[in-house]
């Protein structure tokens, strides 16, 4: 019987290895950028076309390679980084496995141009599908210029699994940001289809963060540093008030290598405990310097997962460093027991204003010290100020009663029109409807006398309605979210979202990652009612917004929608239509969740909720209503 075990050819073995190393264009970008860093380059340029599917080119001014090294770098397990097994426990370079270049050359067409400073001529090597096509001496600048063309051209099944260009470009930007953050002393630039995305000069880490993520980050950065004999932690953390609902801007680097570690992320989150709303995620860029003997990098080919031999100690030091940073920069809230929280309300009350009283100041403190201790204390008014205040009081006399009567009339006149138009004579003046009611389609209601007795609102948040079995309690915000969600799903399925045109179109500028995300979903976003036009590599013109959008500026509206979309995408893995409908409903429901409603509006809300496909729960799974039966109510009072 013949032997059946055979040694695989190098070309097939390289394609198998490429399955782990080269998963998508961003994997190629990561490996090539790290090679340039290991070559001690001070300027690195990344050029991509069609999100890396057609071309990925990295140009650096590093050490370059000799003629022999230029050919050897494409062989499997060929590397200049390690020599013995002991070197695995003292790795300081980004690469060391010797798999990346061989794997890339196995699934693409590669052209390498390189020259050392001591050589007069450089070397050009061209390889396709692991097969050497050409090698010759050429004139080329010092450093390395590597082109990767037509990725996965010889593996069509793998190429078909690639996502759209905006999706792949988002992954490339993510990898570029990680490498650029870990090396602020190196100048980086990124071009996509001849458009400049980033041009980052060398400088400090704080400047690199601002250049990558925007000027708004300048206000929220707080330095973080802690040095011990075992590990050193340095970097920046964001202030709690700037925390976002989405993950993605949390960066850990171990010896300048980007890592993913949920255990250390928990250390940072625990340091922020009690300072942020639940479900929020702070921004941080933290560098961990540790002796390579205490970590194991050789866990996965992507090298983003490492193991610490004493992970608990690292956890404690990271947590202590973040807490120390917050205490030093006054990021933790403090309690002021001298502050009168009711003072601001009294200060702006013109009617029945309280008579100002003087406060005794201890003799050992001067007035300036006292004011600094009580920043909200009300100073004693001069006679002239008292006279001015009395004059202002006369001017506003009776205003409260007038405002209350006016508001009552406006609510009555602007109630939702539930009757047919023919019931009204043409001579009747036109009144504006409440904008919140436009969300709900009119339905026949009970008489106003009956609805007044059975439905009412508490704290502008909950609706209580009488039912046969007892009492119905509705969460107003969750109910709106359910109704709006089904409305937006209909818009997306039928492509008929209503748009409210802006009087003056506004220009919004997004981060490169958010820009490519919006480009990716722009067709669906237009179906919601947005009227957008691309005007650059990071900007849009907004001509219209959905008629049911929250009352906020266009920049905040779109950024909030994208943030919610990314959060759903990472946590729930929804399809695009479902994700957008949920995201927009979540954003819009907050606008109506704390608003005052008339009886007609409340009853219409209840009817629309029960007409939905799942009235008991919001799209995110929150309970929208609770029925308290008569027996349950009686049990509360132990009857």
UniProtKB/TrEMBL annotation:
Residues 454-596 form the MutL C-terminal dimerisation domain. Signal peptide: none annotated. It comes from the Bacteria. Gene3D superfamilies: 3.30.230.10, Histidine kinase-like ATPase, C-terminal domain, MutL, C-terminal domain, dimerisation subdomain, MutL, C-terminal domain, regulatory subdomain. Residues 209-327 form the DNA mismatch repair protein S5 domain. Pfam families: DNA_mis_repair (PF01119), HATPase_c_3 (PF13589), MutL_C (PF08676). The keyword Hydrolase applies. One of its GO terms (molecular function) is endonuclease activity. Keywords: DNA damage, DNA repair, Endonuclease, Hydrolase, Nuclease. InterPro entries: DNA_mismatch_repair_MutL, DNA_mismatch_S5_2-like, HATPase_C_sf, MutL/Mlh/PMS, MutL/Mlh/Pms-like, MutL_C, MutL_C_dimsub, MutL_C_regsub. Belongs to the DNA mismatch repair MutL/HexB family. PANTHER family: DNA MISMATCH REPAIR PROTEIN MLH, PMS, MUTL (PTHR10073), DNA MISMATCH REPAIR PROTEIN MLH1 (PTHR10073:SF12). This protein is involved in the repair of mismatches in DNA. It is required for dam-dependent methyl-directed DNA mismatch repair. May act as a 'molecular matchmaker', a protein that promotes the formation of a stable complex between two or more DNA-binding proteins in an ATP-dependent manner without itself being part of a final effector complex. This is DNA mismatch repair protein MutL.
């Amino acid at each position: 019987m013949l032997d059946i075990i055979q040694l695989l050819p190098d070309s097939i073995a390289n394609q198998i290895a490429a399955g782990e190393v080269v998963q998508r264009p961003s994997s190629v970008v990561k490996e090539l950028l790290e090679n340039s860093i290991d070559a001690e380059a001070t300027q690195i340029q990344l050029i991509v076309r069609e999100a890396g599917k057609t071309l990925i080119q990295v140009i650096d001014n590093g050490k370059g390679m000799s003629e022999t090294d230029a050919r050897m770098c494409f062989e499997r397990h060929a590397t200049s980084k390690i020599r013995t097994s002991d070197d695995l426990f003292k790795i300081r370079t980004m690469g060391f496995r010797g798999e990346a270049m061989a794997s890339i050359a196995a699934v693409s067409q590669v052209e390498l141009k390189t020259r050392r400073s001591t050589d007069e001529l450089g070397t050009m090597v061209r390889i396709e599908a692991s097969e050497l096509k050409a090698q010759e001496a050429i004139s080329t600048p010092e450093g390395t210029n590597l082109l990767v063309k037509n990725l996965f051209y010889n593996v069509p099944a793998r190429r078909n699994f690639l996502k759209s260009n905006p999706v792949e470009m988002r992954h490339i930007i993510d990898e570029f940001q990680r490498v650029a953050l870990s090396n602020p002393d190196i100048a980086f630039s990124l071009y996509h289809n001849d458009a400049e995305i980033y041009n980052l000069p060398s400088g400090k880490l704080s400047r690199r963060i601002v250049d990558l993520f925007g000027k708004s980050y300048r206000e929220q950065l707080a330095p973080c540093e802690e040095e011990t004999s075992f590990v050193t932690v340095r970097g920046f953390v964001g202030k709690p008030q700037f925390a976002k609902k989405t993950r993605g801007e949390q960066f850990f680097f171990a010896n300048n290598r980007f890592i993913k570690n949920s255990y250390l992320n928990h250390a940072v989150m625990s340091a922020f405990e009690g300072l942020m709303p639940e479900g929020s995620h702070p921004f941080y860029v933290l560098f961990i310097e540790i002796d390579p003997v205490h970590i194991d990098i050789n866990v996965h080919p992507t090298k983003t997962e490492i193991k610490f031999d004493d992970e608990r100690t690292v956890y404690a030091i990271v947590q202590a460093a973040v807490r120390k940073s917050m205490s030093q920069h006054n990021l933790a809230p403090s309690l002021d027991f001298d502050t009168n929280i009711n003072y601001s309300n009294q200060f702006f009350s013109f009617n029945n204003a309280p008579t100002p009283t003087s406060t005794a100041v201890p003799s050992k403190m001067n007035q300036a010290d006292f004011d600094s201790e009580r920043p909200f204390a009300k100073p004693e008014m001069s006679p002239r100020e008292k006279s001015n205040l009395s004059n202002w009081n006369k001017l506003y006399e009776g205003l409260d009663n007038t405002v209350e009567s006016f508001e009552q009339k406006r609510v009555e006149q602007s109630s939702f029109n539930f009757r047919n138009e023919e019931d009204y004579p043409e001579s009747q003046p036109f009144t504006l409807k409440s904008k919140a009611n436009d969300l709900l389609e009119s339905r026949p209601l009970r008489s106003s006398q009956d609805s007044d007795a059975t439905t009412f609102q508490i704290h502008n948040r909950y609706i209580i309605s009488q039912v046969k079995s007892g009492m119905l309690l509705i969460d107003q915000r969750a109910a709106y979210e359910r109704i709006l969600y089904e409305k937006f799903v209909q818009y997306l399925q039928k492509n008929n979202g209503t748009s409210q045109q802006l009087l003056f179109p506004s220009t919004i500028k997004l981060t490169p990652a958010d820009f490519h995300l919006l480009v990716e979903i722009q067709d669906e976003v237009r179906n919601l009612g947005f009227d957008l036009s691309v005007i650059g590599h990071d900007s849009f013109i907004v001509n219209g917004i959905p008629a049911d959008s929250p009352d906020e500026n266009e920049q905040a509206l779109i950024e909030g929608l994208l943030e919610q979309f990314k959060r759903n995408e990472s946590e729930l893995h929804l399809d695009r239509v479902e994700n957008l409908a949920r995201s927009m409903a979540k954003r819009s429901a907050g606008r109506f969740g704390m608003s005052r409603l008339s009886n007609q509006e409340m009853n219409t809300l209840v009817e629309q909720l029960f007409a939905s496909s799942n009235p008991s729960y919001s799209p995110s799974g929150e309970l929208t209503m609770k029925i308290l039966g008569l027996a349950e109510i009686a049990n509360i009072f132990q009857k």
